[in-house]
Amino acid sequence: MDFQKHHYIIGIDLGTTNSAVSYVDVASLANEASKRTSKNENRNLIKVFNVPQLTGYGEFTRVQVLPSFLYIPGEYDISKDALKHPWKKREDLFVGCFARDHGSKIPSRLVSSAKSWLCNPNADRKAKILPWGSEGFEKISPVIATSEYLLHIKNAWNHFVKDEDQFLENQMVILTVPASFNEEARELTLEAVKAAGFGAAVTLLEEPLAAFYSWLMNHEKDWQDHVKPEDLILVCDVGGGTTDLSLISLKESEGSPKFERIAVGDHLILGGDNIDLALARVVESKFRTISGLTSEKWKTLCHRCREAKEKILETGETAVRITIKGEGRSLISGTLSADLDRTDVEGKLLEEFFPFIEPDQNIDIDEGKIINEFGLPFEKEPAITRHIISFLEKHRIDVLKNLSKAPMPDVILFNGGTLKPDMVQQRIREAIGKWFKASSADFPEVLENKAPELAVGIGASYYGLVKMGQGVRVGSGSPRSYYIGVSIKDEKDPKAVCIVERGLDEGSKIHLPDIKYEVRANEPVAFHVYSSSYRSGDRPGELIPVDGSFSILAPLQTIIRFGKTSQRKTIPVTIAAEYTEMGTLSMYCQSDISAHKWKLEFQLRDEEKGIASTETEIYDEDLIMEACHKICEVFAESDSHDGLRTIARTVEEIVGRKKSNWPLSFLRKIADSLMTIENTRKFSPEHEARWLNLTGFCMRPGFGDTFDNERAIQLWKIYLSGLNFEKSFQPRLEWWIFIRRIAAGFNAGQQRQFFQD
Fold first, then answer.
1. pTM over the 0.90 mark
2. How many CB atoms lie within 10 A of CB 664?
3. Cα–Cα nearest to 544, from 484, 603, 490
């Protein structure tokens, strides 16, 4: 990625409970280079962006974090004047502090834990299902909820900088996700990014790694005083909704120390939300009532318990009174009150969520899920310490291979609001030490993390600097290995071929020419895809029996087009893959009997529901190049009037499909080619009319593809340049058709200019 064309690096921690934003003014780096002499120079470059948001009725305040809560107001709920933002909004729904606080009183309209929903395989993440269990109004999907948080951050940033060249969609963005997010959840996150109108320069970074980068930023010059070669570092990140674990080693490499991530944990929906639910049950048992709580009151109680827990653990209060108001005629008599005290909180934390695990105990974890009151599949095993020790033991071989020792961490970096209390951190240290039968003097040391609510966002910006060649790099790569399912003649047991090995560096490409497969062309096909975060030693091309160590992902589902007759046939192929710079997985089929190559896309919705994937079919890469080349060739000739009139039909013949059936990816490829030859509009009125017609057709409706924001920047410049042959009728007609087709991809200010013009 070209950092030189971006004014800022922006790091975004999209958290389950709170989101945080930091930034680096890249444009000022050259000027600062000659002046910077401080010990922690990169630390001084990274700033926290205090996010403007509603904090009360009509109150707009800048706050260090943006609570990841979204509220959908009712018709007579809140005055619209009280919800005004400094920027224009599409809808009345709003996010942040006031959404969280007001929504705790009316939880049926409050969306929370959207990030946890993104990785819930039992739900349609694109369906309008949130707030879960609510009825009587239009709800939103987990993807759209996530996009609303990002949209608020984008609007807040753009309002802050005001200069369009410095708008967030034109900057380099590092967005963090749990290391345990599988490929489906990552793709859905990128869909939310696209829906929020971000630009193409977005990179995904794992949260535990970002937290460690934040620590490295503060210790660029003295990290050797805290960790030493052959040390094993555990990054333990427990937030509001998830538990995320990673192991990092420090090894000598070519004479100098080098950090390498060697393992990541599986996705665990286990965190502060689980603790709040457990505390709510404690308080409910203290209420003097024989009838159970309604769903509405139960959700309110959970929010009250979260607030009380934070007061007890962070401000030292011994007890907090929790009151749930009655309703209607029972407004007074139906009111329930009870105290949540320090003993309740500490007892639940230490006994249920952070117990000691004796060395002779079985650490096999029940991998079943519990569907809780909020609809999420929580872990059946609530003991976080048991999950940590199980994770360490699963990676015993990895640690032995890399460091030649047992998997007991030498140091731990704690992150996430749940692990903020010192009591919890010490409990985890002791639990790990006792499991490995270590003396108290040999328990893991704790790396300092003064601001866990900001660390991941700050680490994201630091990672951007590292990609520019500044700072201390941690070798990471793919957090898991990937496999594609295959069927073998006369064998019943499922098999899979390793495509991407764990730890593969970003930007790496894998091609397996020695392994031959057959695929069915010109008919719907589905490829089963698996992943594993802890299988060790699998190499690309290896054939492996599918067992319990694999996690199944959504299938790759498409139609592979081959030949102009569209006859169904079986063709031999080889498989290729790429772990992209964005941190996502791409897979390809390469024909063995021609130069054809097809990219495979993930089907992220439940195939049993009969919902088609984004791309209903894909074209051979060489076929696409042939079509693009033909277009450039025709437009490049100043007197090719016949070729211009029939160019659309010519492309239809090349790909064997009417233009009304061209898929989005192909349309945008054609649009990209046309924009590179935009200067050919000047050759003649017919050139300009045909260019406007075809470009507008291929760019409609102006949005829908990841890179459409980048294309919109180019198209806006074309609009501002105006017509070349404005006195000719056909170009003038096609000009306004062109604008109508692309208008939805522009912002409100640009659309107003269309109207005024």
1. no
2. 14
3. 484
